[in-house]
Amino acid sequence: MTMVVFDGYWPWWLGALALATMGLLYYVATGKAFGVSSTFELLPDWLRRRDQEDRDPTGIPVGAQLVFFLGVVLGGSLAAWGSETLAPRLDLGDLSVGFLGDGAGMWMALLGGGALVGFGARMMGGCTSGHGLSGCSRLEPGSLLGTVTFCAAAVATAFAMQTLWAG
Fold it and tell me: Dihedral of CA 153/156/159/161: which sign?
């Protein structure tokens, strides 16, 4: 039996406080700006050459990247467990099945979407969290423009899906 901390999603302000705290602690620990895609990108490279050195080309200690990576997985799992929403599934819910179907079509769409997200993160020099949290807080023009674009695309996609789903 689990203790329910929140019923459903966390309050927005608590999520914002947690992200801000994490970003600040990451900066204090590494001297670098927070970014999820760069951490995921550098870990496999380090695993390939782990006997050569304990730092990646950016100078961030590999231990800090490993702690960050494990913290993302563990923190998300604990948050889901605390709200009793931790339930492994192989589908994305009714809305997803309505758009993508189920079975091989859904998996192909997810694989294609993941490839596009990975390509976009590399092309933009970071992902939404890196640009939105770290870049915008430093008022970097590319991050500000990127974050506005991400949000506009998300709103347009939500309206398009709602229109297609209702129609």
Answer: negative
Report yes or no: 26 and 68 within 8 Å, Cβ to Cβ: yes
Instruction: Show Cβ contacts of residue 66 under 8 Å, excluding neighbours closer than 6 positions.
Output: 43
Tokens of 141: 């023009």
Give φ, ψ of 61 to 5 degrees: -55, 140
What pTM did the predictor assign? 0.62
Q: Where are the domains of the chain?
A: 1-88
- In angstroms, the CA 126 to CA 146 distance is 10
Per-residue model confidence as pLDDT tens digits over 76-106:
788 777 777 667 766 677 777 777 777 788 8
Residue given tokens 């380090």 in the structure block: 46
DSSP calls for 22-53: HHHHHHHHHSS---HHHHHHHHHHHHHTTTT-
Each residue's pLDDT tens digit, 128-142: 878 888 888 888 898
The DSSP code for 6 is: S
How far apart, in whole angstroms, are the C-alpha atoms of residue 56 and residue 156? 38
Tokens linked to 119: 């390509």
Cβ atoms of 37 and 131 within 8 Å: the answer is no
pLDDT (0 to 100) of residue 37:
75
Contacts of range 96-104, beta carbons closer than 8 Å, 24 or more positions apart: 98/165, 99/161, 99/164, 99/165
